[in-house]
Amino acid sequence: MTTITAQPGSTFIKSKKHARPSAPALSAPALAVLASLAMPMAYAAGAADAAPELAEGAQLPKVVINAGPDRAVQGPVRSASDKFTAPLLDTPKSVTVVTSETISQTGAVSLTDALRTVPGITIGASEGGNPVGDNLFIRGYNAQTDTYIDGIRDSGSQSREIFAIEQIEVVKGPNSALGGRSSAGGGINIVTKTARDTNFSNATAGLGTDKYARVTTDINRVIGENTAFRLNTMVHNNDVAGRDVVGGERWGIAPSITFGLNRPTSAILSYYHLKSSEIPDTGIPFNNPITTGANVAKNGGGTPFTVDREAFYGLKNRDFRDTQTDVATVDLRHEFSPNLAIRNATRWGKTGQDYIYTQPDDSKGNSVLYGTVWRRANTRVVDTRTLANSTSLSGNWNTAGIKHSFNVGVEFSREDTDRGSFVFSPGTNNPLTGTFTCPTAGAATLYNCTTLVNPNPNDPWVTTRSQSPTLTTVETRTRAVYGFDTIEFTPQWLLNIGARWDDFSSTLVTPAVGSVATVRARVESKFDTYQAGLVYKPKANGSIYVSWATSATPPGNDGGDGLDALTVAIQNLQPQTSRSIELGTKWEVLPGGRLSASAAVFKSDMDNARVTAPDGSTQNVGRKELEGVEFGLSGRITNAWTVFGGYTYLHGVIADNGFVNTGTATAPRWTASPFNGNAFPTTPKHSASLWSTYALNKAFTFGAGANFVDRQFANVNNTKYSPSYTRFDAMASYTLNPSVSFQLNIQNLTDKLYFDRVSSPHYAGVGAGRSASLMANLKF
Questions:
Q1: What is d(CA 495, CA 728) in angstroms, rounded to the nearest whole number?
Q2: What residue stretches are annotated with the TonB-dependent receptor-like beta-barrel domain (predicted)?
Q3: In this structure, what CATH number is given to the domain that contains residue 265?
């Protein structure tokens, strides 16, 4: 089956390839990886990547929402994170665990693909200050920097792959007690594949529409009495269905070796490398509303323009995105006794990307007034280096008849980011106006202006580019100590508590260039965060809980490579703090607990959100409020019928957005923001997903799924939005013999035109059209 990979770090690619050929050739390293796979039936989809069909009586490792059925392990289902000191069934938090089986069945090949099955998560669009990558929103809050690899923060903007990851754990609600600085919405922990104590060889090879080609391998070998080696590789190429020009290629390799398998002392050494080259997508500009002035008759409706789905406003010979990730991890563990263990993990990572992508910008109303679009060139040259170390002690003890399950630890991390950009000569403004106003389009504008209808991505790029001499360096340091304890008073009553103290500092320096002075900013922030939850178990297979948790987001939370960047204006602000209360229940139902069900209601508040104060400065005086409901269902209804689904309702309100100047610059008059009471951007009120498979017999399995996402606003004004949509997918698999199976996936079965990425006020990202892929899963 397919699995999830993450990119804990990434190197900066020096290559400046701008255009991708219409039938892109794979790079030499990628071809080398592909050549290594050309062995007759040597690998297959078994072990961790078994075919999705079930043999009669076989136990399916289940996708688990909020502590679902057994995951092919003995005992209650637990998180892969040591910080969860109780089985997920008894953890007073909303946690969704997505295993490799569901990822494979749905045909996902990226983190954002896999998270499509989890309601309550949406994808944001990139913009000038918001880099291209996994821009995730959880429960309405930006969680761009809240991704963890095996419990350690994964810094640097990137687009994560799937090929070397075992499962994804989505923790919803304030996450700071678990991970430190974070948003109020939650976090994502990606669990990697490591060497096991069983020999297996798996491979998948697939072809599909839109130049889709993908090969993966997963080989594990026991090479000594207590030592094993595992190697995962991947080569991938495809265009985006329904989008002109957009697409790319990538390849990756992830070896790991484990010493001391099944021994009290063990060491896991792993390395991860991913490299990609693509032409990135943007989308279609919003039909901007005009509410005043002489052009009010041309008022737009606020949705994306109705143009050809293929409309691509970029320049094929200019736009590019190159990324590279390199990560090395040493994970040491020692068990002093069955009730006490210590873990120390050290990780070095380098994450980098450079790109030029065209944003269809309508800041001057070009599309409504003239039927044109300004080709705004968003650029980035970034390199993030990370060194992190985490040490934790976990165990169990009894005192006075009360059971404790605990985890305490310390964490240290260092993140260094160098961020630059590209400059163009003679520039990207319209030379006829000297601005980005575009009354006309074409050669006279140096093709910086194009038509709203039928833009030509093959327009010649007539300017030159070079890297800007301005380079911003951001150094971020974190020290933290934390502790968690699940206290079992009786088999029916448990108390889960946790606390964390963080010492966060970040320094930004932009050296002087020409007449521009040196810019310096520094933030030093110490903050405490907490979580507590009371669990009542009316029966062994169920729990009812109430929980409370806090979160803190200091200025410069992104470490220099994201939307929440450190600036002089915010360096003296306090962290944005949030709190949440949740009431929920989790049940394992049907014989053997093979089906899990969950429900939760929650409310969160951010009391000191950053807004504009009456003097025009940025201050912690705003407030956001969110209420919601979640339902989840996963597991096996019968031996042949599996289901994985959920529903989320979110009502997010900007309760206080500060003040606006309704006077003049010389005689300001500050009044309450007119946006008070507006809905959160990038937060659908309703979202739901359902994926189900049915095995007709030992050979044939069929599956289908649906995803519904409600309207999403792209701005705090609530004047621009993407419409609601429902997308349908389907799957069929056939097992030829124990060593060979085939799987057909059809994505977006009805070829629905929908928009799946918002947050930029200028455009909405277009969802992929209908596509199909056929995979051969091989086992040897």
A1: 41
A2: 287-749
A3: 2.40.170.20
Phi then psi for residue 129, to 5 deg, are -90, -5
What is the per-residue pLDDT across 321-378, written as a single tens digit (0 to 9) for each?
A: 999 999 999 999 999 999 999 999 999 999 999 999 999 987 778 888 899 999 999 9
Residue 113 belongs to some domain of the structure: no
Whose structure tokens read 């678990």?
Answer: 178
521-525's contacts with Cβ under 8 Å and 24+ in sequence apart are: 521/556, 521/566, 521/567, 521/568, 521/571, 522/571, 523/554, 523/555, 523/556, 523/566, 523/570, 523/571, 523/572, 523/573, 525/554, 525/555, 525/574, 525/575
Question: What residues contact residue 546 under an 8 Å CB cut-off, 6+ apart?
Answer: 92, 533, 534, 581, 582, 583, 584
List the structure tokens of 337. 């006794």
d(CA 626, CA 137): 14
Please say if the pLDDT value at position 419 is more than 80: yes
Cis check for the bond before 426: say yes or no (omega within 30 of 0): yes
Q: How many domains does the chain have?
A: 1
57 exposed, middle or buried (CB, 10 Å; 0-12, 13-18, 19+)?
exposed
Strands 186-192 and 147-149, how do they pair? parallel
376, part of any domain:
yes
Q: Answer yes or no: is pLDDT of 568 > 90.
A: no
Distance of CA 754 to the CA centre of its chain: 20
User: Which residues, 6 or more positions from 35, have their beta carbon under 8 angstroms from its beta carbon?
Assistant: none
Q: 212-271 pLDDT, tens per residue?
A: 999 999 999 999 889 999 999 999 999 999 998 999 999 999 999 999 999 999 999 999
- Amino acid letter, residue 246: V
- Domain with 234, as residue range(s), is 200-779
Q: Which residues contact 475 (CB under 8 A, 6 or more apart)?
A: 414, 415, 416, 506, 507
Cα separation values, 148 from 152, 500, 652, Å: 5, 17, 26
Q: How far apart are CA 610 and CA 608, in angstroms?
A: 6
β-strands 147-149, 152-153 pairing: antiparallel
CB-count burial class (<10 Å; 0-12, 13-18, 19+) for 666:
exposed
At 457, list the tokens. 């991505």
Phi/psi at 621 (5° precision): -130, 0
Burial bucket for residue 149 (CB in 10 Å: 0-12, 13-18, 19+): buried
Secondary structure of residue 296 in the 3-state scheme: helix
Q: Report the Cα–Cα distance between both ends of the chain, in Å, rounded.
A: 14
Strands 576-589 and 595-612: antiparallel
Q: Averaged over 268-278, what is the pLDDT?
A: 97
Q: Using DSSP, state whether 458 is helix, strand or coil.
A: coil
Cα separation, 236 vs 221, whole angstroms: 25
Residue 697 lies in a domain: yes
- Find the helix or strand (DSSP H, E) in which 363 lies: none
Is there a domain that residue 40 lies in?
Answer: no
Contact 502, 520 (CB under 8 A): no
Cα(159)–Cα(280) distance, rounded to whole angstroms?
A: 11
Instruction: Tell me which residue has tokens 């410069």.
Output: 556
Q: Are 134 and 10 in contact (CB under 8 A)?
A: no
